[in-house]
């Protein structure tokens, strides 16, 4: 007898007892009616006893089935969640619990496709107290200004043997004086104070433009709204699949490197080589403070890392000379040059606790101390963003035609981008744009202070590169002019010859290999003349003294031997 049947019988017995108390079963005056009523009542309750258990059993079976289904669903959910975070636990083993918890919370949104959230602002505007005390160990006014009377010299005379742009003189203050001139507080960000970023685990493409899942496919309306400067803004800025750039967002970086990149630094220098396209150049002429305080980061993909390992350049600390190598997996683009735009324009996202950064392309060699560069092109000019202008071209339309002529990108895409900008009001460069000196940058060097307005500028610049062509020179002036029309902010576009003063430009790897190949081919085509000797004679060739002309004296061999012996009384004639 089960517990369920006991419960039913208890209900049935209780009903009979209630009938007995009401006199239905034991009334002597109406015994027939009583018996008949009792038979009807008994038959009715027996039918209930049969009907109710069947209903209850059906409900019980349905509840158990639902419970079983719910249990299986919960088990499947937990299994999927465990599989998703299995790799995270191993990658986050080097992180503390707080960091691991914060990273793991991102993936709850992965189970909700189409959900758009906002990544919180993560900008360290002020350095920590211990770093602040190291910024200005001396009063900058105590130093004499060596560049006060510096005058830009006239260009040197033409040299037929040296064709093309050349460096020009630049006045730098000494390194210790440059460090003393570093601002103690961040510069004012005009208009924009708080900048946050969109995060969508599965971004959806809603318009027929290029774009990428890494960039989040911002719509044209979202693009236009991003140029409306407000005190607080949220924009697309790459890494849309997570709130921690490099952590399962595309452009993935190991946990140990991410932890290092999140440390506070006053100044960093960064570069990248993807597709094994360039040869790493080692910096020169840096001081002791730079070696101790300024880290150098080089982003590489797996192909480039394999080449470094095969050539035995990469040591056990993941360094090649002064550069710390940051391996990037799961690159978002098939084009190596487009992948290089990610660290070039989004350094503030990869390094959220950095005040100043200097970006140089992988083919460049830095030959001036970073503190001196920052002092010359940012702090002395009261600027927050500096980039050199192109050495020859100032107009975007001319730059587009030069890109098409050189085959830098397919002509249809370049024409589409330029036509789009023309419809927005892009015009050819003229003196009417002064004090803007150029619309075309030489974008291989970017000097930047990480504040909201400059971070917004590089975010929107990257969005243009993601939407249109990867030729960032074509989109630079459009983004700059749109921001300058809204707020009082400017870009320091210095001369290209000044840039060539602190970097040396090497050739790309393919050109270097092509030159080496041509040298080998030429040496084989024109071998040097060989020394012909007479094989019939075994004696070594006789060395004959040169013939003497008239008036030349015969050297005294005995005297030379006496001088060479170093005996007493000898003298040397000069």
TrEMBL record:
Residues 195-508 form the TOD1/MUCI70 glycosyltransferase-like domain. The chain crosses the membrane at residues 64-84. Residues 520-574 are annotated as: Disordered. The lineage of its organism: Eukaryota, Viridiplantae, Streptophyta, Embryophyta, Tracheophyta. It comes from the Eukaryota. This is TOD1/MUCI70 glycosyltransferase-like domain-containing protein. Residues 564-574 have a biased composition (Low complexity). It holds the Pfam family TOD1_MUCI70. Residues 541-563 have a biased composition (Basic residues). The keyword Metal-binding does not apply. Keywords: Membrane, Transmembrane, Transmembrane helix.
């Amino acid at each position: 007898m089960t517990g369920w049947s006991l419960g039913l019988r208890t209900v049935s017995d209780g009903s009979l007892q209630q009938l007995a108390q009401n006199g239905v079963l034991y009334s002597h005056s109406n015994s027939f009616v009583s018996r008949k009523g009792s038979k009807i009542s008994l038959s009715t309750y027996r039918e209930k006893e049969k009907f109710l258990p069947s209903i209850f059993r059906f409900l019980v079976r349905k509840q158990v089935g639902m419970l079983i289904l719910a249990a299986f669903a919960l088990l499947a959910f937990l299994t999927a969640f465990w599989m998703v975070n299995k790799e995270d636990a191993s990658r986050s083993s080097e992180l503390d619990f707080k960091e691991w918890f914060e990273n793991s919370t991102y993936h709850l949104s992965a189970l909700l496709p189409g959900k758009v959230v906002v990544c919180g602002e993560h900008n360290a505007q002020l350095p920590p107290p211990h770093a602040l005390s190291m910024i200005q160990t001396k009063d900058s006014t105590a130093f004499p200004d060596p560049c006060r009377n510096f005058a830009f010299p006239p260009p040197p005379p033409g040299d037929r043997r040296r064709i093309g742009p050349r460096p020009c003189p630049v006045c730098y203050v000494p390194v210790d004086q440059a460090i003393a001139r570093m601002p103690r507080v961040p510069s004012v960000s005009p208009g924009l104070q708080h900048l946050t970023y969109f995060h969508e685990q599965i971004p959806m493409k809603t318009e027929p433009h290029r774009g990428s899942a890494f960039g989040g496919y911002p719509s044209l309306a979202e693009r236009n709204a991003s140029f409306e400067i407000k005190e607080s803004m949220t924009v697309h800025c790459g890494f849309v699949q997570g709130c921690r750039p490099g952590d399962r967002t595309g452009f993935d970086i190991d946990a140990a490197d991410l932890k290092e990149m999140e440390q506070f630094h006053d100044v960093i220098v960064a570069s990248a080589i993807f597709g094994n396209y360039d040869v790493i150049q080692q910096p020169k002429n840096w001081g002791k403070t730079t070696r101790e305080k300024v880290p150098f980061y080089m982003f590489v993909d797996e192909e480039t890392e394999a080449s470094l390992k095969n050539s035995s350049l990469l040591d056990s600390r993941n360094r090649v000379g002064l550069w710390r190598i940051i391996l990037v997996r799961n690159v978002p683009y098939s084009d190596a040059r487009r992948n290089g735009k990610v660290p070039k324009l989004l350094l503030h996202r990869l390094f959220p606790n950095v005040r100043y950064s200097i970006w140089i392309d992988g083919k460049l060699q830095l030959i001036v101390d970073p503190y001196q560069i920052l002092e010359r092109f940012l702090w002395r000019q009261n600027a927050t963003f500096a980039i050199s202008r192109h050495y020859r071209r100032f107009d975007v339309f001319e730059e587009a035609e030069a890109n098409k002529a050189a085959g830098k990108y397919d002509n249809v895409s370049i024409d589409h981008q330029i036509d789009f900008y023309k419809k927005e009001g892009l015009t050819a460069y003229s003196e009417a744009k002064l004090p803007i000196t150029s619309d075309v940058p030489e974008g291989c060097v970017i000097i930047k202070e990480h504040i909201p307005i400059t971070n917004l500028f590089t975010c929107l610049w990257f969005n243009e590169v993601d939407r249109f062509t990867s030729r960032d020179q074509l989109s630079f002036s459009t983004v700059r002019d749109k921001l300058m029309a809204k707020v009082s902010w400017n870009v320091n576009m210095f001369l290209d010859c000044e840039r060539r003063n602190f970097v040396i430009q090497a050739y790309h790897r393919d050109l270097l290999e092509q030159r080496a190949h041509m040298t080998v081919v030429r040496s084989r085509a024109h071998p040097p003349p060989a020394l012909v000797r007479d094989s019939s004679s075994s004696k070594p060739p006789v060395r004959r003294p040169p013939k003497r002309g008239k008036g030349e004296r015969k050297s005294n061999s005995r005297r030379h031997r006496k001088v060479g012996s170093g005996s007493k009384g000898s003298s040397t004639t000069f």
